[in-house]
Design brief:
The structure holds 2 protein chains of 2 kinds. Chain A is mainly beta. Chain A is 0% helix and 54% strand. In chain A, strands 2, 4, 5, 9, 10 and 11 form a 6-stranded mixed sheet that branches. In chain A, strands 1-3-8-7-6 form a 5-stranded antiparallel sheet, with no helix packed on it. In chain A, β6 and β7 form a beta hairpin. By secondary structure, chain B is mainly beta. In chain B, the strands form 2 sheets. In chain B, strands 2, 4, 5, 6, 9, 10 and 11 form a 7-stranded mixed sheet that branches. Chain B is globular. The chains are: A mainly beta, B mainly beta.
C-alpha cells in the first residue's frame, strides 16, 4: 500500500520567515495530495491540495509544489505568522476510485516565534 | 462544505467496556471514513463505512474490535469494543462526496480508557 514520509518532524521559524515541509510518497498511482493543518485540540482542516496534473498551486501565503517523477510534494508558507503555529499533515490518495482513502504523513510541528 | 458532528465529544471509560461514537452530517455524502489519532501521532485509517453493506477495514483493524454501521448517507457509528488503555485516542470521522477527492473531518471524539 501507499507510504508517505514527511520531514521535518519539527520546524521552528521566526515570524516573517518562510517555512517548507516536504513529503514523499511510494505509490506512483497516487494523484491527489492534500495538506491539513491541525491546531491543538481541534480537527484537521484542509488548507490546500494539488492534483497530479498540476505542478504548483498557490493560495495567498501558502503554496504546494509537486514533482511526480521524484514522487515528492512540498508545502511552502511565506511571511509566517504566530497563528500559523500548528501541526501540518500531508496526505496522498488515488482519486477517481470509489475508495479515495487518505494515507497521512507523520506530521510536522511548526512553531512561529514572534 | 458539510457540517459534521460527532457524539460524544469526549469520554472516560473503564477497560473491558464498549463505546459507540456517532458521526452525523447535515447533507448526504458518498464516502465516510473513520480514523484514529493516537496521542501525538498522525491519523490512521480504521475503515471505510459503506452504506448498506459491511465496512472495509484496513490492515490491523478488525470488525470484532471496531464494528461500524452506516444505515444511510448522513450517519455512521463506530464502536470500540472490549476497550483497553491502548485504545485511548482521538477517533475522527471524515466525509467526502462523489466527484471530489476532498475530505472533511468531524471534530473528533477523545477517548480515555482507564
Amino acid at each position: 500500500g501507499e507510504n508517505v514520509e514527511q520531514h521535518p518532524s519539527t520546524l521552528s521559524v521566526q515570524e516573517g520567515d518562510s517555512a517548507v515541509i516536504k513529503c514523499t510518497y511510494s505509490d506512483s498511482a497516487s494523484n491527489y495530495f492534500p495538506w491539513y493543518k491541525q491546531e491543538l485540540g481541534k480537527r484537521p482542516q484542509l488548507i490546500i491540495d494539488i492534483r497530479s496534473n498540476v505542478g504548483e498551486k498557490k493560495d495567498q501565503r501558502i503554496a504546494v509544489t509537486l514533482n511526480k517523477t521524484a514522487k515528492h510534494f512540498s508545502l511552502h508558507i511565506t511571511e509566517t505568522q504566530p497563528e500559523d503555529s500548528a501541526v501540518y499533515f500531508c496526505a496522498a490518495s488515488i482519486s477517481g476510485t470509489s475508495y479515495g482513502k487518505l494515507t497521512f504523513g507523520q506530521g510536522t510541528i511548526l512553531t512561529v516565534h514572534p | 462544505s458539510a457540517v459534521i458532528s460527532q457524539k460524544p465529544s469526549r469520554d472516560i471509560c473503564q477497560r473491558g467496556t464498549s463505546l459507540t461514537i456517532q458521526c452525523q452530517v447535515d447533507s448526504q455524502v458518498t464516502m465516510m471514513f473513520w480514523y484514529r489519532q493516537q496521542p501525538g501521532q498522525s491519523l490512521t485509517l480504521i475503515a471505510t463505512a459503506n452504506q448498506g453493506s459491511e465496512a472495509t477495514y484496513e490492515s490491523g483493524f478488525v470488525i470484532d474490535k471496531f464494528p461500524i454501521s452506516r444505515p444511510n448517507l448522513t450517519f455512521s457509528t463506530l464502536t470500540v469494543s472490549n476497550m483497553s488503555p491502548e485504545d485511548s485516542s482521538i477517533y475522527l470521522c471524515s466525509v467526502g462526496t462523489s466527484g471530489s477527492e476532498t475530505q472533511y473531518f468531524g471534530p473528533g471524539t477523545r477517548l480515555l480508557v482507564l
